[in-house]
Amino acid sequence: MQKIGIIDLGSNTTRLIVMAYERGRCFRLIDEVSEAVRLAEGVGASRELKPEPIRRAVHALSMFDRLCRSTGVDEVVAVGTSAIREAVNQADFWTALRAATSLDLRIISAQEEAYYGFLGAANALGLRDGFTFDTGGGSTQVVAVENGRSTESFSVQAGVLRFTERYVNSDPISKRDLRELRAAAQQAFGALEWLKGKAGQRLVGMGGTVRTLARVDIKARNYPLDRVHAYTLTRAAVAAISEQLAQKTRREREQISGLKSDRADVTLAGAVIIEALMDHGSFSELMVSGQGLREGLFYAHFLAPSDPPLLEDPRGFSVRNLARLSHFQEAHCRKVAEISLSLFDQLSSVHGYGAWERDLLAQAALIHDIGVAVGYYDHHKHGEYLVHNSSLLGFSHRESIMLSALVRNHRKGFSDAAPYAAVLQPDDSTRIARLSALLRIAEYLERGKSQVVTGLRVELGNPMRIMVTATGDAQLEVWDASRRAGLFRKAYACDLEILLAPQA
Amino acid sequence: MQKIGIIDLGSNTTRLIVMAYERGRCFRLIDEVSEAVRLAEGVGASRELKPEPIRRAVHALSMFDRLCRSTGVDEVVAVGTSAIREAVNQADFWTALRAATSLDLRIISAQEEAYYGFLGAANALGLRDGFTFDTGGGSTQVVAVENGRSTESFSVQAGVLRFTERYVNSDPISKRDLRELRAAAQQAFGALEWLKGKAGQRLVGMGGTVRTLARVDIKARNYPLDRVHAYTLTRAAVAAISEQLAQKTRREREQISGLKSDRADVTLAGAVIIEALMDHGSFSELMVSGQGLREGLFYAHFLAPSDPPLLEDPRGFSVRNLARLSHFQEAHCRKVAEISLSLFDQLSSVHGYGAWERDLLAQAALIHDIGVAVGYYDHHKHGEYLVHNSSLLGFSHRESIMLSALVRNHRKGFSDAAPYAAVLQPDDSTRIARLSALLRIAEYLERGKSQVVTGLRVELGNPMRIMVTATGDAQLEVWDASRRAGLFRKAYACDLEILLAPQA
């Protein structure tokens, strides 16, 4: 595998991620460091970077550079965004940087910044149409997406550090300051005609502020899944948080569950900016992307020369990625998928499910055994843990919980993911049972992992009958699948017989 | 890796385990099947195996054989124990077996059965002195262990299926039956002079009954760790369960939490047998081994030609085993261990800990990063999960929880494993904090994973100072270790400075 380091020097934070990858095939994050250097601190209207923030930023960058060199990173891509882009004294920064390190940092344009953010979010969430935004310390990038291409993009001078320094001069914020902050945020988006009145379209948000808002909302709602990526944040939730922040002193804000102390000062401005953006576009909700600029830079490299560098099928890609990195037994898993889908199709008049459920079942079949890497006993539960904690792309929270549940149920016992009921639909418990039952029968019809079963024919009725065709001796498979038919009987409320079809 | 299948045909259950291994180096369980065939059902005083149980057993064995063949197992070791050993009509069994499969099953003597059980338990728990027993369907094997060798062994005709069929003729059991059952159990161990009055010595129990009793006790006590291996079961707990079982009908017993329905009939007899054994030896507690006969057969093969085939250091072996199977970065982990132990030693007057804590710290250092295989973000938490769910050998529950906690804390945040407080000692929270703090400093002094730090000298005092010697540029390491010193400051209640020692 090759290793690439991606460094992003923002106005508030600088971060390094290191990806190990085989180009176009698979990748995984293997290192990450971040430091809140606040390069734009004290910049104000003069647009002059101050010496101490420069020193902090350069020190962090030189540490990142050292880390890349000592861990054998093959290539480093380092970019700087608005703070440095707009500075009148860039030269001071370059002088300090070159004195400390030979790191090759590139200042990217607001356009590029917006584009790479869009790439990160679109790959992570499977976004093909809608809008993305990335609220950083110095600016907010907004992109309109149509058919997987960014058709409009704009950088708005509304950043959380910039606005905090300009408008949040009292603790708690005074009414007057708050009014000015809100007015400035509204004004910032005013010119974006192409963003106006987009109710019903998808809006995806990136950046530390949006992740912080999601974390606070997750805690406040007792939402059962502690995961900001793909979390849906409503306009009402953002408004409630900004109101709460406006009323509290900084010290009181630090007590808010989900709000890290280094975000306690800047998040109010961030919430107000995001509210203004949502108002302008008439969006009632947004989806959080845990991936953004840095990952976008990575995808551009990883998927080159595709244009746009978007994964064709992010879900399928990341499930295969996970399967490969877990050293899955490919022939076995593909056969389990094949049998599962054959059962699914032949039972379609019974369950009435469609392409969405079929795809989930196929994905679950590919990774059903990955828990074996943890330990054989309870490997179905380990698999659930692994799927639950893998950064799969393109799955909603509901889909991700269902996928974990299918893996959990492929072998024995049963869980309908009840702790996550708030993420699911009321009939998902039945859906999980019915899909799991098919996966389990398929798994045991491939018990010997030798792809002996070549086909099957379902005879509907009660008892239901599965007639199995095999290339060789499939007694083991029929025996073990029959032993494991309990879940099927329950889920489909009928008896089940599994029989070897007479040889042709 | 090679693959070996181990099959054990008992009086109650027949099981197959498949191990993948490199001889003497590492292994992992990769498959397992069991079936409660109850071969000894209805045998009674006639000692004649009945046709239906023979049919069930042979069918299961032929399925196991097929599974081994279709999954590419290189070698199969299959053994039969008391049911078949004592049968007057062995020939009927052989005829049926040979008609169905070419599996080569070997009847082992009671001595061998006891010996392999001892091997399994001694390797799994690091037992060098004490006693082991294995209560099965037809008999109970007892072994005296001295200095890692079995010095006495005996097979007692007290088995759960045998005793249930003979004495449990009423539901709930009548007073008279219970009296006879107890008397028979006591009598069974009466002749074992070498087992008498061994209060204070270690007693290790194996088999489905002892695991069932542990599971019931775990549920009844709300013990926070749902793990029977290395669980301590007191004489009082066994007595309480046997009393409870004696008062209930079979249907009522099935409601007992932790008692599987296929164990609801035979566990009373099992509990009475184990009580009698504990009484005879004056043992106030026993430790459950999750490994026994099958694993013992495996170790004999895996460790050959060692005599006895015992791992010299089961804990160290299994931690290295886990590290290797997780593709750990060996040089990095060894350096983290080295730095951790150097800090531990130089701070010994401050923490006052000894060899036990030192060993835990060293083990945790070797596997601190294994969670990266799940995902980089939160890999410390994934590592905790992996350690918690790995079948590590020779660790008590307390040690295992502490080891997981150290891995959990190597990077950021802090957990003192509070949910497992009932498994820990009152001062373990402090112990975990102090050891974790050392591991974390060591991890960041090896941030670049390039073994740049070659030595360190601790200057005690407040602030405490760590003077770092390095072969090259260790600024990254000193910077990141300094950023992560918060836990150290808290755990040792003093300030900490980490400095590069002036070059010699």
From TrEMBL, chains A, B:
Keywords, comma-separated and alphabetical: Hydrolase
Residues in Ppx/GppA phosphatase C-terminal domain copies: 315-457
Limits of the Ppx/GppA phosphatase N-terminal domain: 24-301
An MF annotation (GO) of this entry: pyrophosphatase activity
Source organism (scientific name): Candidatus Viridilinea halotolerans
Protein name from the UniProt record: Ppx/GppA family phosphatase
Highest taxon in the source lineage: Bacteria
UniProt-listed InterPro entries: ATPase_NBD (IPR043129), GppA/Ppx_hydrolase (IPR050273), HD/PDEase_dom (IPR003607), Ppx_GppA_C (IPR048950), Ppx_GppA_N (IPR003695), PyroPPase_GppA_Ppx (IPR030673)
Pfam families referenced in this protein's UniProt entry, alphabetically: Ppx-GppA, Ppx-GppA_III
Signal peptide: none
Family: Belongs to the GppA/Ppx family.
PANTHER family: EXOPOLYPHOSPHATASE, RETROGRADE REGULATION PROTEIN 2
